[in-house]
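pasting for ref. prot 1 ->
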Amino acid sequence: MTARALALERLRSERFDLLVVGGGILGAGVAEVASRHGFRVAVVERDDFASGTSSASSKLIHGGLRYLRLGHFSLVREAQAEVRALTRFVAPHLVRPLNFVLPVYRGGPYGRIPIRGALWSYAGLTGAVSERGRMISPAAASKLVPALRRDGLRAAGLYPDSQTDDARLCLANLRAAADAGAVVLNRVELVGLARGPVAQVRDTHSGETSEVAARAVVNAAGPWIDEVRRLEAARAGTSVSLSRGAHLVLERDGGWDAALTIPIDRHRVSFAVPWAGRLLLGTTDSSFEGDARTIEPTDAEERQILEEAGLALEPGRLGAVRGRFVGVRVLPAGATDTARAHRETTLSVGPLGMISIAGGKLTTYRRIALVVLHALRAELELHRIDRRPRPLPGAADPDVAVDALLRRHPELDPSLASHLAGTYGALAGEVIATGRLEPLAAGVPEVEAQVLYARQREWALTAEDVLRRRTTLSVTGRDSDEVRRRVEALLAS
């Protein structure tokens, strides 16, 4: 019996304490924290894990400097604390420190004094005086960001935040839940919910339906939250507003030692971030209506992103566009100005007791999961919640993980060891154990073993699962026909 068949059998035959609907970062986080507290958990995802917004973010774990201007101080304080926890303890191989340059231009939306004050406030909210940002000269800023536009540049702020691989952070939480005994299944759709609660689910591969009994149900379906709510109550209204955020992935010109925060106006910023060997630009922020499953970036969004990048980058220094993607944010219902809307999280309880999560940020997913667990205390008879950050599977300093990997496998090429340790942390040895260390194609760091591992341990079923979410090949524009054929053959082997 395959691992998937075994998981489907468990889903049909066992009674669970908690059924989580949605395999994005919020659903994965809830599953991880509930499993860690000893509860029997099942996670079902209609598509692939992290296939929505959780793989289409700006790849940042950050406090949200711009939220100070909007007065969202509690959000910044919480986010700053999570940046430190995720970077230092929870997933240091996936969440890496990164300095950001914030340029101050003549005639721009902010001057030196407001930026200096914001940097002090940003660090002061968590008392991180040792990590406080500072003002630097135009020359120093240009050394960090070689493509920075110097015309009219008066000064720049420099402050610390972090970046991540959002899809792999989601997978790490699911792996932690599975290691603690949770049933984790993608391509399984919730199609009905009755009193009990008893959920009816459908395996989208076979079309087979089955019932799942659970003490509690959490709706973490993101942009599809109201679709799931209407399975509980057909007349459930609209509980959220949606906004779209598009990004571009460009070839990178030269070395970047920091990311760039680009002030657009008094309320919006955009980013230029060195990521996965490329340069990530974005994001846009505009209202969205429709089915988030069919959303695609537009040519107009590409033009907007490039124009906004040109406010702080020399246009001639930008490389060719190699990829683009768009995600959907979940905002409070009735939000009209999406750029200024609160990035808050709200919980609602339906007539059958299902808890629905609306909103939230990638950075604070762990705190949101703890809030959900607190809301379930009565149903789960939970007396004490352990709020301490716990390391996810593979958690390790990437430099330490590289050294350990090379000591155990001295035959490895150092660049491959660095790539595997940065992707899997302390679990890199499991990937190597599958064999097949041949590159998927010339010039890409990914090897065949990663595809086999994605199939065996990371629930990958299709080439798109591997190319888009278990690796960065698709989002960085390296998913050539040759690579795709190789991945498909390995998955079928």
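and prot 2 ->
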Amino acid sequence: PHTNFLPPDIYEEFENETSGKFGGLGIEITVQDSILTILSPIEDTPAWKAGLKPGDKVVSIDGKSTRGLSLAESAQMMRGDMGSKIVLGIVREGVKGKKDYSIKRGTIKIKSVKYTDMGGGYGYIRLTSFIENSARDIKKVLTKMAKKDGKIKGVILDLRPVSYTHLTLPTTPYV
């Protein structure tokens, strides 16, 4: 149940996503109750700046209904050339009716490692997604900690909720 065949064009997109940098809107999507749903916008991306929020339902893409589309088909419709515009029809809980959001596609850079210095040789590292640079970025944080405090006494490595985009592309792609 966790295996999917990836045609060459989808595989190429998969490779781009796991590099940590790609063109798109900056959202992670899924299908919940048969409705295309935004899991989260990525901070400082076109989607974030446009005001999209977790839980928003995407009911149309450029005026075309998302009803009956697979996650891969929906993601494909949302991808496009850098600088090009897309209009997402969004239904949000607590807000009447559909609102259209016009968004200009941009470069999306995923930061998979977030770090908080807790002082005294202790640190908190949150891994937000597994991408090509994740191991290198964790190593950088640990090196920074060791230089600052002389010794690492403890690290909290938070893996909740980690995005396994590259492992389960058809269920939670970034666009």
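The CA atoms of residues 87 and 108 lie 18 Å apart.
The chain is about 25% helix and 35% strand.
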